[in-house]
Design a protein that fits this description.
EC 5.1.1.1, 19 strands, 11 helices, Ala_racemase/Decarboxylase_C, 6-stranded mixed beta sheet, binds pyridoxal-5'-phosphate, alpha/beta, 345 residues, TIM Barrel, Ala_racemase_pyridoxalP-BS, pyridoxal phosphate, 30% helix
Length: 345
Amino acid sequence: MASGVLTVDLDALVENWRSLDALSGAETGAVVKADGYGLGAGRVARALARAGARRFFVAMAGEGAALREALGPGPEINVFSGHMSGDTDMISDLGLTPMINSLDQLLRHVEALPGHPFGVQLDSGMNRLGMEPGEWAAVRDIAESQNLNLVMSHLACADEPNHDMNRHQLATFTEMTQGVQAPRSLSATGGILLGRDYHFEVTRPGIGLYGGLPFDLATPVITLDLPVIQVRDVAPGESVGYGNTWIAEEETRIATLAAGYADGIHRILSNRTQLYAGDTPCPLRGRVSMDLLTVDVTHLSEVPPSLSLVNKVQKIDTLATEAGTIGYELLTSLGARYTRRYVGA
Ligand SMILES: *Cc1c(COP(=O)(O)O)cnc(C)c1O
């Protein structure tokens, strides 16, 4: 087969959810936006639902609709972008819970779907989504007289435990939600690791489920194996790939693999990372092309049918750091051309 294989270990995913659940002094939900951080929202969510997750979060109503098809009735599906115009039918027919972000959205929601449950997102300092303190104070009574079932906010600096912003947002959120009857939620993965004060009644981990930082005790969830299409010997002085950026100093064996920047292997990794034959590193030589990688396999006694870019040795955050980015971006960039294989659960 000429496509790479992205293997998703659903047992590892479930183990990560259970570990974060054990740390949470609260109900632990699961964030499966952006197609489950690129790993397949339906498969991921079904595995977590079987493990006991009852509440899922997505960014957009369309994602929520697809998720409802995968999960069936029962689990709560919360939509971070709230109730946008055009979303009403999906929210109503598929039983989604919009997280209302503004007065406009609140009016839209209670007019279009009176009695339909909703949550509210508050801005505790990040200035991205949610109602500001003044706006919330003005509509809180209306919201609480309707079917309000979750009040949440989001931390800007939770991956830096000592950042003052964490305590500031905790204080703001606590004050804004004083006396609220509905369950409250402040923490994603980073906030769970900050301790119980940050957990309230519901937590919302995403990246930690998928094996990424800041959850440094996470079990790796994915492996990425890329097939070797061709092997050639390159003489000293010859170059490899676009722009001749790598030139052989000695007799070198180069394997050409079927994946490139169109598959989320960032071009900045050119000449900078390595792939693995089992535990043996094999340096990437030359530029990453759209569909191909060229890898030094001179030191291998036998070239295997595929090399791995992500495995237990080289985790997503290792690769992300080499690419100057974060695990989140790496995962959600993994393209549509891989064969996604699910094991476990
Ligand atoms: C993406 C997101 C999460 C999950 O964050 P992680 O850092 O991946 O755990 C939680 N809440 C909101 C509002 C988000 O946008």
